[in-house]
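Sample entry (207 residues):
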Amino acid sequence: MALSAAEAALNPVASEAALEAVAAEARACTVCAAALPLGPRPVFRVSATARLLIVGQAPGTRVHESGVPFDDASGDRLRSWLGMDRPAFYDVRRIAIVPMGLCYPGRLPRGGDAPPRRECAPLWQERLVALMPDIRLTLLVGSYAQAHNLGPGAMTERVRAFRSYLPERFPLPHPSWRTVGWERRNPWFAAEALPALREVVATALAE
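Predicted structure, serialized as tokens:
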């Protein structure tokens, strides 16, 4: 029987076991196999003790190869936004990473990665998150994560209004190379959003 969030909070040992059971199911998932050009390889990190949840888009080819989320230039940019080094970022005891699509979805005909598979988040996102009762802050990285969690809306306006989503959520742009130009056009992001981001992340991770 699946644990509720309240039951998970009261029984951490059972929560860890239940989370690992769901994670094992997710790692073995083949629902989208026929549509995945490189085949299924779910990439995510979960822990019953995690306090920060990062909800991204979907793995790229490099992450598909390594099996490590944000193990690419986008990850470098995200870590720079957070003011965090790799060891801290990959401390699974404190930080969980569950993208909207767990597997690499392929490329669009005109270039760029395809959107996360629509089947994925309804299958795994809620089940995994429900078994991480210590999550204090969720970073919604990119428009797909924001649309799923917040409904329709413009990414830039959501990021600009980041304060209205605190203390539980913080919307961010996807940290791809395209964001370099976006940051230049939106200097408030570095001046206002990033200092606030680092502060609330530090608070969420504090003992």
